[in-house]
Model the fold of this input.
Amino acid sequence: MADYLPTAPYRGTRDFLPAEMSVRTQVFQRLYDVIERYGYLRYDGPVLEPVEIYEAKSSREIVEQQLYTLTDRGERRLALRPEMTPSVARIIAGNAGKLPFPVRWYSHPNCHRYERPQRGRVREHWQINVDVFGSDSPSCETEIFELIHDMMAGLTASPDMWVLRVSDRVLLNAILTTMVEVPADQTREVSALIDRWEKYPQDTLAQEAAELGMTEKQFHRLGEILSAGDALLDDLPGEAREQSVLMRVLDSSARHLVTFDPLIVRGFDYYTSTVFEVFDTSPENRRSLFGGGRYSNLVGLFCAAQIPGIGFGMGDVTLMDFLGTHGLLPAPRSEVDVAVIPVDETLAQAARQVAHDLRQTGLRTSTPLEYRKLGKELARANKSGARVAVIVGRDEWAVGAVTIRNMVTGDQQQTPTDAAPSVVTTMLG
Ligand code: HAM
Done:
Protein backbone atom coordinates (compact mmCIF):
# COMPACT_ATOMS: atom_id res chain seq x y z
CA MET A 1 0.00 0.00 0.00
CA ALA A 2 1.22 3.49 -0.81
CA ASP A 3 2.65 5.48 2.06
CA TYR A 4 0.62 8.70 2.12
CA LEU A 5 1.35 11.73 4.22
CA PRO A 6 -1.07 12.22 7.15
CA THR A 7 -4.15 14.35 6.45
CA ALA A 8 -4.77 15.25 10.10
CA PRO A 9 -3.57 18.74 11.09
CA TYR A 10 -0.69 19.07 13.57
CA ARG A 11 -1.80 18.11 17.10
CA GLY A 12 -3.69 20.89 18.81
CA THR A 13 -4.40 22.81 15.58
CA ARG A 14 -7.60 22.72 13.60
CA ASP A 15 -8.81 22.77 10.01
CA PHE A 16 -12.05 24.68 9.56
CA LEU A 17 -14.28 23.34 6.82
CA PRO A 18 -16.70 25.80 5.20
CA ALA A 19 -19.76 24.88 7.31
CA GLU A 20 -17.83 25.43 10.56
CA MET A 21 -16.17 28.51 9.14
CA SER A 22 -19.60 29.93 8.33
CA VAL A 23 -20.75 29.48 11.93
CA ARG A 24 -17.55 31.07 13.25
CA THR A 25 -17.73 33.98 10.82
CA GLN A 26 -21.29 34.80 11.87
CA VAL A 27 -20.36 34.72 15.56
CA PHE A 28 -17.22 36.84 15.08
CA GLN A 29 -19.04 39.34 12.85
CA ARG A 30 -21.59 39.97 15.60
CA LEU A 31 -18.72 40.61 18.02
CA TYR A 32 -16.83 42.90 15.62
CA ASP A 33 -20.05 44.90 15.11
CA VAL A 34 -20.44 45.49 18.86
CA ILE A 35 -16.76 46.38 19.28
CA GLU A 36 -16.85 48.82 16.36
CA ARG A 37 -20.00 50.43 17.73
CA TYR A 38 -17.81 51.52 20.65
CA GLY A 39 -15.35 53.14 18.25
CA TYR A 40 -12.57 50.52 18.37
CA LEU A 41 -10.45 50.30 15.21
CA ARG A 42 -9.01 47.04 13.90
CA TYR A 43 -5.25 46.53 13.60
CA ASP A 44 -3.02 43.52 12.96
CA GLY A 45 0.60 42.45 13.29
CA PRO A 46 2.99 39.60 12.42
CA VAL A 47 2.65 36.08 13.77
CA LEU A 48 6.45 35.97 14.28
CA GLU A 49 7.95 38.25 16.93
CA PRO A 50 11.38 38.57 18.60
CA VAL A 51 11.34 36.18 21.55
CA GLU A 52 12.55 38.94 23.90
CA ILE A 53 9.19 40.68 23.88
CA TYR A 54 7.77 37.72 25.82
CA GLU A 55 10.81 37.06 27.97
CA ALA A 56 10.82 40.65 29.21
CA LYS A 57 7.40 40.59 30.85
CA SER A 58 4.78 37.95 30.15
CA SER A 59 3.79 34.78 31.94
CA ARG A 60 6.42 32.42 33.34
CA GLU A 61 4.35 29.44 32.20
CA ILE A 62 4.18 30.78 28.63
CA VAL A 63 7.86 31.62 28.39
CA GLU A 64 9.20 28.46 30.05
CA GLN A 65 6.76 25.86 28.75
CA GLN A 66 4.56 27.09 25.94
CA LEU A 67 6.51 29.25 23.49
CA TYR A 68 7.12 27.96 19.98
CA THR A 69 10.56 29.34 19.21
CA LEU A 70 12.83 29.24 16.19
CA THR A 71 16.08 30.74 15.01
CA ASP A 72 15.98 32.28 11.54
CA ARG A 73 18.77 32.07 8.96
CA GLY A 74 20.23 35.28 10.36
CA GLU A 75 20.47 33.73 13.88
CA ARG A 76 17.58 35.85 15.21
CA ARG A 77 15.53 34.21 17.98
CA LEU A 78 11.86 34.37 17.12
CA ALA A 79 8.61 33.06 18.58
CA LEU A 80 5.16 32.38 17.18
CA ARG A 81 3.04 34.86 19.13
CA PRO A 82 1.39 33.14 22.11
CA GLU A 83 -0.75 36.25 22.77
CA MET A 84 -1.19 39.73 21.27
CA THR A 85 -0.53 42.06 24.20
CA PRO A 86 3.29 42.37 23.87
CA SER A 87 2.86 42.87 20.10
CA VAL A 88 0.27 45.61 20.47
CA ALA A 89 2.40 47.31 23.15
CA ARG A 90 5.30 47.26 20.66
CA ILE A 91 3.11 48.68 17.87
CA ILE A 92 1.69 51.41 20.12
CA ALA A 93 5.19 52.39 21.29
CA GLY A 94 6.51 52.47 17.72
CA ASN A 95 3.71 54.78 16.59
CA ALA A 96 3.14 56.73 19.80
CA GLY A 97 4.15 60.05 18.24
CA LYS A 98 1.31 60.00 15.74
CA LEU A 99 -1.50 58.43 17.74
CA PRO A 100 -4.33 60.53 19.24
CA PHE A 101 -4.44 59.06 22.76
CA PRO A 102 -6.48 57.55 24.25
CA VAL A 103 -6.78 55.04 21.43
CA ARG A 104 -9.20 52.14 21.21
CA TRP A 105 -7.97 49.18 19.15
CA TYR A 106 -9.03 45.61 18.45
CA SER A 107 -7.61 42.64 16.56
CA HIS A 108 -8.30 38.96 15.96
CA PRO A 109 -4.96 37.13 15.78
CA ASN A 110 -4.20 33.43 15.90
CA CYS A 111 -1.95 32.62 18.87
CA HIS A 112 0.23 29.59 19.47
CA ARG A 113 0.97 27.92 22.79
CA TYR A 114 2.52 24.52 23.29
CA GLU A 115 -0.13 23.10 25.62
CA ARG A 116 -1.57 19.65 26.22
CA PRO A 117 -4.70 19.71 24.03
CA GLN A 118 -7.85 19.25 26.15
CA ARG A 119 -11.34 20.77 26.45
CA GLY A 120 -10.90 24.53 26.08
CA ARG A 121 -7.17 24.29 25.31
CA VAL A 122 -5.44 23.84 21.96
CA ARG A 123 -2.10 24.81 20.44
CA GLU A 124 -3.43 27.37 18.00
CA HIS A 125 -6.38 29.49 19.04
CA TRP A 126 -7.93 32.71 17.76
CA GLN A 127 -8.26 35.51 20.25
CA ILE A 128 -10.25 38.73 19.86
CA ASN A 129 -8.18 41.40 21.60
CA VAL A 130 -9.73 44.69 22.67
CA ASP A 131 -7.54 47.32 24.33
CA VAL A 132 -7.49 50.99 25.28
CA PHE A 133 -4.15 52.83 25.48
CA GLY A 134 -3.22 56.10 27.12
CA SER A 135 -5.73 56.55 29.95
CA ASP A 136 -5.66 55.87 33.71
CA SER A 137 -9.34 56.74 34.08
CA PRO A 138 -11.70 54.19 35.68
CA SER A 139 -13.97 55.02 32.71
CA CYS A 140 -11.75 52.59 30.75
CA GLU A 141 -12.68 49.77 33.11
CA THR A 142 -16.35 50.74 32.96
CA GLU A 143 -16.34 50.94 29.16
CA ILE A 144 -14.58 47.58 28.81
CA PHE A 145 -17.06 45.94 31.22
CA GLU A 146 -20.03 47.45 29.36
CA LEU A 147 -18.56 46.29 26.07
CA ILE A 148 -18.21 42.75 27.41
CA HIS A 149 -21.86 42.82 28.48
CA ASP A 150 -22.91 43.99 25.01
CA MET A 151 -20.74 41.36 23.29
CA MET A 152 -22.31 38.64 25.40
CA ALA A 153 -25.82 40.08 25.00
CA GLY A 154 -25.37 39.78 21.22
CA LEU A 155 -24.76 36.05 21.60
CA THR A 156 -26.87 34.93 24.55
CA ALA A 157 -30.43 35.17 25.69
CA SER A 158 -29.74 35.48 29.39
CA PRO A 159 -27.09 37.22 31.50
CA ASP A 160 -27.22 34.26 33.93
CA MET A 161 -25.22 32.08 31.54
CA TRP A 162 -21.94 33.83 32.30
CA VAL A 163 -20.21 35.90 34.95
CA LEU A 164 -17.57 38.66 34.84
CA ARG A 165 -15.29 38.19 37.84
CA VAL A 166 -12.91 41.02 38.70
CA SER A 167 -10.16 41.83 41.15
CA ASP A 168 -7.32 44.30 41.52
CA ARG A 169 -3.72 43.40 42.28
CA VAL A 170 -3.38 46.56 44.39
CA LEU A 171 -6.30 45.41 46.55
CA LEU A 172 -5.03 41.83 46.68
CA ASN A 173 -1.60 42.95 47.86
CA ALA A 174 -3.23 45.02 50.60
CA ILE A 175 -5.46 42.09 51.59
CA LEU A 176 -2.47 39.76 51.79
CA THR A 177 -0.21 42.09 53.76
CA THR A 178 -2.78 43.49 56.18
CA MET A 179 -5.24 40.63 56.65
CA VAL A 180 -3.05 37.55 56.18
CA GLU A 181 0.23 39.17 57.28
CA VAL A 182 2.11 38.00 54.21
CA PRO A 183 5.46 39.85 53.97
CA ALA A 184 5.40 42.41 51.13
CA ASP A 185 8.18 40.61 49.22
CA GLN A 186 6.15 37.39 49.18
CA THR A 187 2.85 38.64 47.82
CA ARG A 188 3.81 37.61 44.29
CA GLU A 189 4.35 33.95 45.25
CA VAL A 190 1.19 33.87 47.35
CA SER A 191 -0.74 35.48 44.48
CA ALA A 192 0.52 32.71 42.19
CA LEU A 193 -0.78 30.21 44.76
CA ILE A 194 -4.20 31.92 44.69
CA ASP A 195 -4.15 31.72 40.89
CA ARG A 196 -4.04 27.92 41.30
CA TRP A 197 -6.66 27.86 44.09
CA GLU A 198 -9.55 26.55 42.00
CA LYS A 199 -7.42 24.11 40.00
CA TYR A 200 -5.70 22.14 42.80
CA PRO A 201 -6.90 20.17 45.85
CA GLN A 202 -6.64 21.95 49.21
CA ASP A 203 -3.94 19.53 50.47
CA THR A 204 -1.62 20.43 47.62
CA LEU A 205 -2.24 24.14 48.17
CA ALA A 206 -1.62 23.79 51.92
CA GLN A 207 1.67 22.06 51.21
CA GLU A 208 2.71 24.79 48.75
CA ALA A 209 1.72 27.46 51.29
CA ALA A 210 3.87 25.75 53.93
CA GLU A 211 6.79 25.70 51.50
CA LEU A 212 6.35 29.45 51.11
CA GLY A 213 6.68 29.78 54.88
CA MET A 214 2.98 30.37 55.65
CA THR A 215 1.67 29.02 58.97
CA GLU A 216 -1.45 26.83 59.12
CA LYS A 217 -3.27 29.75 60.73
CA GLN A 218 -2.33 32.03 57.83
CA PHE A 219 -3.40 29.42 55.28
CA HIS A 220 -6.75 29.00 57.05
CA ARG A 221 -7.22 32.78 57.17
CA LEU A 222 -6.37 33.02 53.46
CA GLY A 223 -9.08 30.44 52.68
CA GLU A 224 -11.66 32.43 54.67
CA ILE A 225 -10.73 35.65 52.93
CA LEU A 226 -10.82 34.20 49.44
CA SER A 227 -14.38 33.01 49.94
CA ALA A 228 -15.58 36.27 51.52
CA GLY A 229 -16.37 37.98 48.18
CA ASP A 230 -17.62 41.57 48.33
CA ALA A 231 -17.70 41.73 52.11
CA LEU A 232 -13.90 41.90 52.06
CA LEU A 233 -13.94 45.33 50.50
CA ASP A 234 -15.44 46.97 53.60
CA ASP A 235 -12.48 45.88 55.75
CA LEU A 236 -9.78 47.13 53.39
CA PRO A 237 -7.31 49.82 54.48
CA GLY A 238 -8.32 53.27 53.18
CA GLU A 239 -5.00 53.73 51.39
CA ALA A 240 -5.51 50.61 49.24
CA ARG A 241 -9.08 51.64 48.43
CA GLU A 242 -7.83 55.04 47.28
CA GLN A 243 -5.04 53.60 45.10
CA SER A 244 -7.28 51.10 43.37
CA VAL A 245 -8.82 52.12 40.04
CA LEU A 246 -11.24 49.21 40.27
CA MET A 247 -12.51 50.45 43.64
CA ARG A 248 -13.78 53.58 41.92
CA VAL A 249 -15.74 51.43 39.50
CA LEU A 250 -17.10 49.30 42.36
CA ASP A 251 -18.15 52.47 44.16
CA SER A 252 -20.03 53.69 41.07
CA SER A 253 -23.28 52.80 39.34
CA ALA A 254 -21.27 50.34 37.17
CA ARG A 255 -20.85 47.94 40.09
CA HIS A 256 -23.68 45.69 38.87
CA LEU A 257 -21.60 44.81 35.78
CA VAL A 258 -19.09 42.73 37.73
CA THR A 259 -18.61 40.32 40.60
CA PHE A 260 -15.64 41.12 42.84
CA ASP A 261 -13.66 37.95 43.41
CA PRO A 262 -10.17 37.90 44.98
CA LEU A 263 -9.53 34.50 43.35
CA ILE A 264 -8.96 36.28 40.01
CA VAL A 265 -5.21 36.88 39.80
CA ARG A 266 -4.18 36.14 36.17
CA GLY A 267 -0.81 34.61 35.39
CA PHE A 268 0.80 37.52 33.52
CA ASP A 269 3.56 39.69 35.05
CA TYR A 270 2.49 42.79 33.16
CA TYR A 271 -0.86 43.37 34.88
CA THR A 272 -0.52 46.14 37.44
CA SER A 273 -3.99 46.57 38.95
CA THR A 274 -7.42 45.61 37.55
CA VAL A 275 -7.68 41.96 36.44
CA PHE A 276 -10.78 40.13 35.20
CA GLU A 277 -12.10 36.99 33.57
CA VAL A 278 -15.43 35.91 32.09
CA PHE A 279 -16.65 32.41 32.92
CA ASP A 280 -19.50 30.21 31.74
CA THR A 281 -21.81 29.47 34.69
CA SER A 282 -22.25 25.91 33.34
CA PRO A 283 -19.79 23.53 35.06
CA GLU A 284 -19.15 21.86 31.71
CA ASN A 285 -16.84 24.70 30.68
CA ARG A 286 -14.44 25.50 33.46
CA ARG A 287 -12.01 27.62 31.51
CA SER A 288 -12.40 31.35 31.04
CA LEU A 289 -13.93 32.84 27.89
CA PHE A 290 -12.12 36.16 28.33
CA GLY A 291 -9.12 37.24 30.34
CA GLY A 292 -7.77 40.73 30.75
CA GLY A 293 -6.57 43.54 32.90
CA ARG A 294 -4.74 46.84 33.24
CA TYR A 295 -1.03 46.98 32.39
CA SER A 296 0.59 50.31 33.12
CA ASN A 297 4.24 49.59 32.28
CA LEU A 298 4.29 47.25 29.29
CA VAL A 299 4.53 49.92 26.57
CA GLY A 300 7.41 51.33 28.66
CA LEU A 301 9.53 48.33 27.60
CA PHE A 302 9.61 49.81 24.10
CA CYS A 303 9.73 53.60 24.60
CA ALA A 304 10.20 56.33 27.18
CA ALA A 305 6.57 57.44 27.15
CA GLN A 306 4.33 56.18 29.93
CA ILE A 307 1.31 54.77 28.10
CA PRO A 308 -0.98 52.61 30.22
CA GLY A 309 -3.08 49.92 28.60
CA ILE A 310 -6.17 47.97 29.58
CA GLY A 311 -8.02 45.29 27.68
CA PHE A 312 -8.80 41.63 27.21
CA GLY A 313 -8.47 38.60 24.98
CA MET A 314 -11.51 36.45 24.16
CA GLY A 315 -10.68 32.94 22.95
CA ASP A 316 -12.52 31.17 20.12
CA VAL A 317 -12.32 27.68 21.64
CA THR A 318 -13.93 28.50 24.96
CA LEU A 319 -16.45 30.78 23.22
CA MET A 320 -17.57 28.04 20.82
CA ASP A 321 -17.75 25.52 23.72
CA PHE A 322 -19.89 28.02 25.62
CA LEU A 323 -22.24 28.65 22.68
CA GLY A 324 -22.46 24.92 21.93
CA THR A 325 -23.27 24.03 25.54
CA HIS A 326 -26.08 26.58 25.66
CA GLY A 327 -27.45 25.73 22.18
CA LEU A 328 -26.58 29.19 20.86
CA LEU A 329 -24.56 28.37 17.75
CA PRO A 330 -26.04 29.83 14.54
CA ALA A 331 -26.75 27.51 11.60
CA PRO A 332 -24.20 27.54 8.76
CA ARG A 333 -25.19 29.82 5.90
CA SER A 334 -26.34 28.20 2.63
CA GLU A 335 -23.70 28.04 -0.10
CA VAL A 336 -25.74 30.21 -2.47
CA ASP A 337 -29.12 31.94 -2.81
CA VAL A 338 -29.67 30.98 -6.43
CA ALA A 339 -28.51 28.21 -8.79
CA VAL A 340 -28.66 28.90 -12.52
CA ILE A 341 -28.97 25.63 -14.45
CA PRO A 342 -28.65 25.18 -18.23
CA VAL A 343 -30.68 22.23 -19.56
CA ASP A 344 -27.96 21.28 -22.03
CA GLU A 345 -24.28 21.88 -22.54
CA THR A 346 -24.70 24.45 -25.33
CA LEU A 347 -26.51 26.79 -22.90
CA ALA A 348 -23.58 27.00 -20.45
CA GLN A 349 -22.57 30.46 -21.63
CA ALA A 350 -26.19 31.68 -21.46
CA ALA A 351 -26.42 30.41 -17.86
CA ARG A 352 -23.19 32.21 -16.97
CA GLN A 353 -24.63 35.43 -18.36
CA VAL A 354 -27.83 35.08 -16.29
CA ALA A 355 -25.75 34.28 -13.22
CA HIS A 356 -23.60 37.35 -13.82
CA ASP A 357 -26.68 39.59 -13.90
CA LEU A 358 -27.98 38.04 -10.65
CA ARG A 359 -24.61 38.57 -8.93
CA GLN A 360 -24.68 42.23 -9.97
CA THR A 361 -27.76 42.64 -7.76
CA GLY A 362 -25.88 41.10 -4.79
CA LEU A 363 -27.35 37.58 -5.00
CA ARG A 364 -24.99 34.70 -4.22
CA THR A 365 -25.30 32.67 -7.43
CA SER A 366 -23.72 29.52 -8.84
CA THR A 367 -23.69 27.85 -12.26
CA PRO A 368 -22.47 24.28 -12.85
CA LEU A 369 -18.80 23.83 -13.67
CA GLU A 370 -19.55 20.56 -15.46
CA TYR A 371 -22.68 19.63 -17.35
CA ARG A 372 -25.09 17.22 -15.65
CA LYS A 373 -28.76 16.38 -16.23
CA LEU A 374 -31.34 18.85 -14.90
CA GLY A 375 -32.62 16.48 -12.17
CA LYS A 376 -29.11 15.98 -10.81
CA GLU A 377 -28.40 19.71 -10.87
CA LEU A 378 -31.66 20.47 -9.07
CA ALA A 379 -30.76 17.96 -6.36
CA ARG A 380 -27.32 19.55 -6.07
CA ALA A 381 -28.90 23.04 -5.88
CA ASN A 382 -31.19 21.82 -3.12
CA LYS A 383 -28.25 20.46 -1.16
CA SER A 384 -26.38 23.74 -1.51
CA GLY A 385 -29.29 25.53 0.16
CA ALA A 386 -30.33 27.53 -2.94
CA ARG A 387 -33.89 28.73 -2.42
CA VAL A 388 -34.37 29.58 -6.08
CA ALA A 389 -33.23 27.89 -9.31
CA VAL A 390 -33.18 29.70 -12.64
CA ILE A 391 -33.50 27.12 -15.42
CA VAL A 392 -32.19 28.10 -18.83
CA GLY A 393 -34.06 26.06 -21.50
CA ARG A 394 -33.35 26.04 -25.21
CA ASP A 395 -36.72 27.25 -26.59
CA GLU A 396 -37.28 29.84 -23.87
CA TRP A 397 -33.78 31.24 -24.24
CA ALA A 398 -34.43 31.67 -27.95
CA VAL A 399 -37.41 33.95 -27.10
CA GLY A 400 -35.62 35.83 -24.29
CA ALA A 401 -37.07 34.01 -21.28
CA VAL A 402 -36.00 31.70 -18.41
CA THR A 403 -37.88 29.54 -15.88
CA ILE A 404 -37.70 30.49 -12.22
CA ARG A 405 -38.30 27.71 -9.73
CA ASN A 406 -39.05 28.19 -6.06
CA MET A 407 -36.99 25.38 -4.51
CA VAL A 408 -39.04 25.35 -1.32
CA THR A 409 -42.52 24.99 -2.90
CA GLY A 410 -41.54 23.58 -6.30
CA ASP A 411 -43.61 26.31 -8.08
CA GLN A 412 -42.25 27.45 -11.44
CA GLN A 413 -42.87 30.51 -13.61
CA GLN A 414 -41.54 31.78 -16.90
CA THR A 415 -40.01 35.28 -16.86
CA PRO A 416 -38.33 37.52 -19.43
CA THR A 417 -34.58 37.08 -18.93
CA ASP A 418 -33.92 40.72 -18.09
CA ALA A 419 -36.62 40.64 -15.37
CA ALA A 420 -35.06 37.58 -13.69
CA PRO A 421 -32.98 39.52 -11.10
CA SER A 422 -36.00 41.44 -9.78
CA VAL A 423 -38.30 38.38 -9.79
CA VAL A 424 -35.70 36.31 -7.91
CA THR A 425 -35.03 39.12 -5.43
CA THR A 426 -38.77 39.40 -4.67
CA MET A 427 -39.06 35.63 -4.29
CA LEU A 428 -36.18 35.58 -1.78
CA GLY A 429 -37.90 38.31 0.23
P1 HAM B 1 -5.14 34.77 28.38
O1 HAM B 1 -6.00 34.63 29.62
O2 HAM B 1 -3.90 33.99 28.35
O3 HAM B 1 -4.87 36.32 28.22
O4 HAM B 1 -6.01 34.40 27.12
C1 HAM B 1 -7.24 35.02 26.86
C2 HAM B 1 -8.25 33.99 26.41
O5 HAM B 1 -7.71 33.27 25.30
C3 HAM B 1 -8.55 32.91 27.44
O6 HAM B 1 -9.59 33.34 28.29
C4 HAM B 1 -8.99 31.76 26.55
O7 HAM B 1 -10.33 31.95 26.14
C5 HAM B 1 -8.11 31.93 25.33
N1 HAM B 1 -6.94 31.03 25.36
C6 HAM B 1 -5.73 31.25 25.90
N2 HAM B 1 -4.91 30.21 25.72
C7 HAM B 1 -5.61 29.29 25.01
C8 HAM B 1 -5.34 27.98 24.49
N3 HAM B 1 -4.16 27.39 24.63
N4 HAM B 1 -6.33 27.34 23.83
C9 HAM B 1 -7.53 27.91 23.64
N5 HAM B 1 -7.85 29.13 24.11
C10 HAM B 1 -6.92 29.81 24.79
C11 HAM B 1 -4.05 36.86 27.26
O8 HAM B 1 -3.60 36.25 26.34
C12 HAM B 1 -3.89 38.35 27.40
N6 HAM B 1 -2.85 38.77 26.47
C13 HAM B 1 -5.22 39.04 27.12
C14 HAM B 1 -5.17 40.53 27.20
C15 HAM B 1 -5.41 41.41 26.19
N7 HAM B 1 -4.90 41.25 28.30
C16 HAM B 1 -4.96 42.54 28.00
N8 HAM B 1 -5.27 42.65 26.73
About this structure: Residues 83, 85, 113, 115, 121-122, 125, 127, 129, 131, 288-293, 311-313, 315, 317-318 surround histidyl-adenosine monophosphate (CB under 6 Å). The first helix runs from residue 18 to 37. The chain has two domains: 18-325, 338-428. Residues 102 and 134 are 5 Å apart (CA to CA).
